Amino acid sequence: MKKTPLYEKHVSLNAKIIDFGGWAMPVQYTNVIDEHKATRKDAALFDICHMGEIEIKGPQALDLLQLSLTRNLAEQEIGQVKLSALLNERGGIIDDLTAYKMAEDSFTLVTNASTREIDLAVISSVLKKNKFACRIEDVSDKTGKLDLQGPRSEEILQGLVKDDLKKIKYYHFTETHVAGIPSIVSRSGYTGEDGFEIYAPADNIGHIWDKVLDAGLSFGLKPAGLGARDTLRLEAGMMLNGQDMTQDTSPLDVPYSWLIDWNKDFTGKPALEKLKKNGPAKKLAGFEMTGRGIARHNYKVLSDGNQIGIVTSGTFSPTLNKPIGLAFLDVSYSAPETAIDIAIRETVAGAKIVKLPFYKRDKR
Amino acid sequence: MSKPNPTDRIYSKDHEWLKDNGDGTALVGITDYAQEMLTDIVFVELPEIGKKIAQGEAMAVVESVKSVSDVYAPASGEIVETNKVLEETPELINKDAFGDGWIVKIKLSDKEELKSLMGADEYEKLTKEEKH
User: Are A47 and A150 in a shared domain?
Assistant: First the structure.
């Protein structure tokens, strides 16, 4: 298994380590519920070094991204982050990724860990075909990434950063120093809370990890694993690539239509236009259990005993104190309040469709 | 650290404990070591009263936030009582696996089977080996 630069720190913190797509990652340090609640109430620190970072630089960097990604990045400002999708020729989602605009001719893409290589291959082929004047570099191995998430993140991080963090707006970033290490600090994340994604050289990420944990001690900060990351993102209605969407899922089937700019060309657009004309047959929707049981990934969704879909994500929500999930199901069952059944082992348990997200923080 | 394994009961390699009541019935639960491995237990599925179970058969389900685990019958018999409190407060197993967190009461059909289970010391050794 591949290890992040923080692996030894997780082991010494007694974390439970799992194989996450070939990476040895901490799933929890104490338990998922404690780490989840710490994130909602105070703050938590996550090792996200496994994710990919790809730099695209050159006079035609923007042209390459415009033709590769669904989102229109023409209006993106330097210092702004944009979520986008990379599609295959069938209009299916290869990756949902973020684009950081570093300079007029320089972008960094932050990719899912499992899709980094295919992203690189697809974007490289677009580059080759169009002979754009720019180059692509995979900097994943030399880049470390930490997510500091939760309402007290700003107070904690401010003690380690000279620039005023209040000036960083949501989905914006700044190049600064964290504990003396050159870093990119982005106000964004995958938990539904305020917080930051911190990028720094892999060799120095351990130093930042230690300093942030120290600084957060009196603020209730905890290290948190992928277990809490999963329950947090699900409560916030955020999807997990490879699970809630696959290469057979189009952005029209999941709440990603807003990532598409129909006024420009991009990989997969012709197929997507056809899909749009017919309307999606299936849709991703949120549900909560009304009967007893916890729905899990790949459990069948039924109506009158007939299968109408499949659970893509399901867990027990620590904030709402009840089981919730996402299901990919026939469009006619996807409206809020629709009653569905979930097959759980030998029985079926009732559930109902609810609006996403399950949880929304109070904006201060 | 797990709580010490009480010596008034016997243990299965699947981390269930069985306490012989001496009246033909036995209480069954999962060990403190097992709850510690599972961490935050948020759901328990109990069997129907009257259900016949064979030794080693899955008879209940315990779920943490992350995982789904079967609880196996440490001995054959019939379910005569279940700990219904667990349906509302599954975390009782985390708090008191050897006491209030018991799961079922079984009417034993073959007392000979109990010989295949372990004493507290032997079980302790097994958990120590698993940790390494």
Answer: yes
